[in-house]
Amino acid sequence: GRIWRRTLGSAMRRPVPMFAGVGVERRPRRPDTAIAPRPGPHPVRGVRGYRPAASGAGAAFTALGDLWLADERGGLRRLTDDDYVDIDPAFTPDGGQLIFASDRAGTMDLWSIELESGHLERLTSDAVKSFAPAVSPNGQRIAYLATTGFGPWADSELRVLDLAGPRRPETLAGGLRDAGDVGWGPSGDSIFLWAHNPAAGGTERRRARFEVALQPPARRWSAAPSPPARPPPPDDVPSGLTWSPPPVGGRYVIQVGRLFDGVGTQYRHH
To answer: Which of 32, 38, 185, 189 is the S-S candidate for 213 at Cβ 3.0 to 4.6 Å?
Structure first.
């Protein structure tokens, strides 16, 4: 970690001494003793991935990390209730299933859930993180995004999974930054999404169309700017949806076995 100096003609070296002293004014501060949020119930503030059904009979969305189904009368049904994170629901054409992304197997994979029985099935098991699924009009293929990064702003791949085949995803494109809003054309021969064009190097998101009926699939970028923001879900969707923190089980004393405070050169014990 030191800086050294030597000449080109000799292997002898000597260190360059450096020292920087910084004065810090430490002001006394009372520790924050709040160990839990205020008792609930609290209204749910976040609704993610709001997807209306093609029939118009309700919508699916994510709240509190779980999947929810809202009917046309405003009633709510919780489809999953566990410690896992479920996102990006997409209806199958017949409205009987949802395809979604979940980390319930340890990685973010695609899953399906039957709305009537609640039966869950894992569809992908790759090392990448899968998200943003869209089901083809015939219900036989799923287009989705996959990334090795830590969020949708990372580079992603567009993949297609054939449900009738051996379920080996096909990669159509890579290097898609800030990709999202995946959807199928009415005929099922094309896939649309919004992303940064890696060839253009610009800062605006563009709409890309992939002709999957062609081999190899053809890609065309539109000249349109970024899409307008999605309208928020109806106000009555999260109506009555609340959460409460778990009860606190008493007071505890925490003893620190070993602490390095950055002031001295030794650890402080207990």
So the answer is: 189
Cβ atoms within 10 Å, residue 25: 4
Give buried/exposed letters for 32-57 (b at 16+ CB in 10 A, else e).
eeeeeeeeeeeebeebebbbbbeeee
The residue behind tokens 């609704």 is: 47
pLDDT in tens, the chain (270 residues): 889 999 999 989 999 998 888 998 888 888 776 666 788 888 888 888 888 888 777 889 999 999 999 887 778 899 999 999 999 999 999 989 999 999 999 999 999 999 999 999 999 998 899 999 999 999 999 999 999 988 767 889 999 999 887 788 999 988 888 888 999 999 999 999 988 876 666 667 888 899 987 777 788 888 666 665 555 555 555 567 888 888 777 788 889 999 999 999 999 999
Verdict on whether the full-model pTM lies above 0.70:
yes
Q: Do residues 44 and 241 touch, judged by C-beta distance below 8 A? A: yes
The DSSP bridge partners found for residue 82 are none
161 in Cβ contact with 122 (< 8 Å): no
Q: Write out the two tokens for 169.
A: 């995803």
Angle at 197 between CA 196 and CA 202, to 5 degrees: 75
Measured in residues, the chain has a length of 270
Least Cα distance to 189 among 123, 138, 133 occurs for 138
d(CA 203, CA 221): 14
User: Distance between CA 90 and CA 101 in Å, rounded?
Assistant: 10
Cα separation, 137 vs 188, whole angstroms: 6
d(CA 230, CA 112): 25
Q: Residue 62: exposed, middle, or buried by beta-carbon count in 10 A (0-12, 13-18, 19+)? A: buried
